[in-house]
Amino acid sequence: MGTGMGQGWGLGWGQGDTGPRGDATSPPRCPHPALALAGWCPLSPAGAQTTQLLVQPPWTPPVLWDRVTLTCQGSGTAAATTWYKDGQRWWQKGPDRIVVTQSGTYQCDRPDTGLSPTVSVSNDWLVLQVPARALLEGDEVKLRCRSWQDKLVTEVQFYRDGNDLGRSPWGTELFLSPLQLNNTGRYRCRGRMEDWMRQTLKVSEPVTVTVHGEHPTAATPTPAQPLPGDSV
């Protein structure tokens, strides 16, 4: 289990893992890692379908104590799925769905659509989760600050890009509603929990919230008006 605390949770947080190690059994890199929160790699320039790694429950990062299921979706035979864990080939010609029993970083590969984006399953003391989907302007989004095995956590505070957002009136949850483009940023939470019979402060790893475009219901378009002289 990770420590969850990390060093220097103020400004200048690190960017995390840079990707699989470059050895003979490492997977190829996904060429388009954008929209990682949605759990998919977007279409290639040629419009080809790509492999998706879906998470249940649908939260990022998923946590080990939730009994996480990963489903590999892509073209080709489901039984030909190759799984990677922590950058190493882990299961060749495996099933297209697995139940995670160890923390770490997972990817899957399908013969016709290639490599999925990574999904990191956490087992840290404190984890900040965001919904595993594309976040659109105008949406209502809930961020959850969770302690290991859902033990009691108090005095929870939230941070965005190193700036203190204070405590939420909802305790361990932070609501962003309606979502705005300026809500984009790197978020963390900090809380006090019991660790070996003593109260200690823990800090989550950062998660990235990226707000895209405008939700179709965020604004009502004005109907086109006929020009003078036009028949109606």
TrEMBL record:
Top-rank lineage group of the source organism: Eukaryota
Entry keyword annotation includes Signal: yes
Signal peptide extent: none
Membrane-spanning parts: none
Entry GO MF terms: transmembrane signaling receptor activity
Gene Ontology CC entries for this record: external side of plasma membrane
One biological process term in Gene Ontology: cell surface receptor signaling pathway
Region (Disordered): 1-28, 213-232
Keywords: Disulfide bond, Signal
Ranges of biased composition (kind: Gly residues): 1-19
InterPro entries: Ig-like_dom, Ig-like_dom_sf, Ig-like_fold, Ig_Fc_receptor, Ig_sub
PANTHER family registered for this protein in UniProt: FC RECEPTOR-LIKE PROTEIN 4, IMMUNOGLOBULIN FC RECEPTOR
Protein name: Uncharacterized protein
Organism: Corvus moneduloides
